[in-house]
Amino acid sequence: MPALPDTIERLDRAVGEQLERQVRNHHRRRLARLGHAHVFDPPDASLWAAGDPPPRPGNELKVLVDGERAIGEICAAIEQARSHVHIAGWHVTPRFKRIRDELTQGTDISCVLDARERTMHCHHEKLVIVDDEVAFVGGIDLTSLSGDRWDHDEHPARGRLGWHDVATRLRGPAVADVAEHFRARWQEVASEPLPAPRPQAAAGGTTVQVLRTWSCRSSR
């Protein structure tokens, strides 16, 4: 008979795969009802998706595996900020302890919550944009909620749950697409205007296209 851990792992994988299929089918049906079924069928057989923003050449893209590398580089970039830092995430807790009021009280930090999150909804992004010059996009929240985000490539969990995840550091013209997406979300939720992001010069040789999720209840 298989060992209990192997049985649990197979069961966990099966449940996860079934849930993923349900989420994909759910969003396909919703997009079809909203008249956006074409997003699943790009106009040609290339790598790139249809629609805006388009692919942008001239970027530097660095892959950061696990929290030790990703959070370290994010912190270094924030420490060098001259103008602003924009952060979007599902759960953000500086020093891994504070709540929203403690985060903003007596500071120049503004924080709003997007109440449109719901079951079967994929709209929880992890973005950090510094001075419109560098953007971090990936799957790592700046929090220890439900697990250990400060893991590394050997993934030993110091707490109840470890996370093997990835983020990317982006420089170049595509940073403006990430910043513009954040700007649109902020203006939608906070009803507060932000200046348009500053376009960036070429920083590398990689072509990047920014893909995003967007609430169907958005005004744009």
Structure overview:
With 220 residues, the protein is an alpha+beta fold. It folds into two domains: 1-41, no CATH class; 47-208, Endonuclease, Chain A (2-Layer Sandwich), CATH 3.30.870. The chain has helices spanning 4-33, 66-79, 100-104, 175-190; strands at residues 56-65, 85-88, 127-130, 134-138, 166-171, 206-208. It is built from four helices and six strands, in the order αβαβαβββαβ. Strands 2-3-4-5-1-6 form a six-stranded antiparallel β-sheet. The longest helix has 30 residues, at 4-33. It is globular.
Protein topology:
Layout: H1 4-33, E1 56-65, H2 66-79, E2 85-88, H3 100-104, E3 127-130, E4 134-138, E5 166-171, H4 175-190, E6 206-208
Antiparallel strand pairs: 1-5, 1-6, 2-3, 3-4, 4-5
